């Protein structure tokens, strides 16, 4: 069944999503097209365990856009999404905040194919897929990234490698989607900036922000 003919229902959840995020008609159309492609491709390959339309709206789209309620994204020029999977949060953020340049980091080839298809079909620009694992990305690239995001991908203990002295990304910030029960380990507590709580669907979560703080001078 081609995605153009899928029955995306005109639900209350859909209208609430469009209104609460203040989406333009263009963004709304792109989100609808994105959901159609996600459902269609997921019938052929396992992209996500979330396949119900209302759950896609809440636990993929709204959960991704929670970042824009936590910080002012108008100040972010380049955002990298680690282990983006089917494009969350990176593609969702690109649709809602088209001014940002988006770097999608994804090493699984079937997901890379899907991401490139979505980018083409939705007519998105200034967005690219980098098919590398996280550590290879850190060691071999030098994008001018302001913010790195990780949602349901790597643990922060691995992500904070971006703050290593040799990293080209040590001056960027990190946003990590976490359950409210999550507690930072001692090894990453030195990078913790703030936690911003939010609710999506029936779940309470936090977006946790990390950055490398300047060393205090020794007396």
Q: Could you walk me through the main structural features you see in this protein, from its secondary elements to its overall organization?
A:
The chain is α/β, with parallel strands linked by helices. The protein has a single domain (3-210), classed as Vaccinia Virus protein VP39 (Rossmann fold), CATH 3.40.50.150. Helices cover 37% and strands 19% of the residues. The protein has nine helices and seven strands, in the order ααααβαβαβαβαβαββ. Strands 3-2-1-4-5-7-6 form a seven-stranded mixed sheet. It is globular. Mean pLDDT is 92; it is low at 1-5.
How are the elements arranged and paired?
Layout (H helix, E strand, L loop, with lengths): L11 H9 L4 H18 L10 H13 L1 H4 L7 E5 L7 H7 L4 E5 L3 H14 L4 E4 L3 H7 L6 E4 L5 H4 L13 E7 L6 H4 L2 E9 L2 E8 L9
Parallel strand pairs: 1-2, 1-4, 2-3, 4-5
Antiparallel strand pairs: 5-7, 6-7
Helix pairs in contact: 2-6, 3-5
User: Which whole number gives the mean pLDDT?
Assistant: 92
Strand content bin: 15-25%
Largest beta sheet: strand ordering? 3-2-1-4-5-7-6
How many distinct helices? 9
- Terminal-residue CA separation: 69 Å
Superfamily at the CATH H level? Answer: Vaccinia Virus protein VP39
Number of domains: 1
> Given the helix and strand composition, which structural class is it?
alpha/beta
